[in-house]
Amino acid sequence: xxxxxxxxxxxxxxxxxxxxxxxxxxxxxxxxxxxxxxxxxxxxxxxxxxxxxxxxxxxxxxxxxxxxxxxxxxxxxxxxxxxxxxxxxxxxxxxxxxxxxxxxxxxxxxxxxxxxxxxxxxxxxxxxxxxxxxxxxxxxxxxxxxxxxxxxxxxxxxxxxxxxxxxxxxxxxxxxxxxxxxxxxxxxxxxxxxxxxxxxxxxxxxxxxxxxxxxxxxxxxxxxxxxxxxxxxxxxxxxxxxxxxxxxxxxxxxxxxxxxxxxxxxxxxxxxxxxxxxxxxxxxxxxxxxxxxxxxxxxxxxxxxxxxxxxxxxxxxxxxxxxxxxxxxxxxx
Length: 333
What we know:
Number of helices: 15
Order of helices and strands: HHHHHHHHHEEHHHHHH
Distance between the termini: 45 Å
Radius of gyration: 22 Å
Number of domains: 1
Structural class: mainly alpha
Strand order of the largest sheet: 1-2
Helix content: 55-70%
């Protein structure tokens, strides 16, 4: 049973093929072309590349920090996050399967053999929704609770967006996010494993639906300066421009647009903010020590120190805060 659950999860997350990578790069290139075409009147290839890779952006300390952070994370932790996600989802899924089958005294799965197309479609949609609401809830918590916010500030400390800014996430934050996914997604997967162990998600032209999700949400593109909107589809899918508003330092934009793929969670819970067409944003934090986040030490170590500061103050609530402690909490963009 456990081997089957692990196998299904591995199947689900194994869409990192060359075709998928090519589609992601193609999406980024087309998005750059669209943004350039809508923005610049006199067009040329030279102007296009200057638009896509502005000198003031790629030479910014924040962009350099992004590159160093991305390289070190890829070099030091290539096997940490994926196995962690598998472990959490598998553990909850297996526990859910065991609990329900034991309580109701039946032997899963209820459906023998391959599932029909309707079952596969419902399974795929339900898993996508489970991942998306899981992300939304954790993202809201990151902005609401000081301990989580200290980690999440790493992501919001980017003052320019260069695509790989999407990976500007503290390793502990990423690990905790996967643990949280294990609760909701693992529960959903565990319930489905009671019905059928032969379920596989839909594919589009042979590409796993989760890879298609990553392409649709344009995670790389929405962490750039390309103001891409999906028009009427914005009511369903959170477009890059709407996510860029989430990184804005304007107080009107604080705690808005938390969604990953779907925009209706923000509409449902009252956290949606629709930007004006072609609205520009200033990115980053408004902390007095924001520059401390533009180094590897600031990105890796400082959040842990500040988390410990919150913990120490909660243990000694009577002790007055220093000026440094107060400034370390920062302002939520």
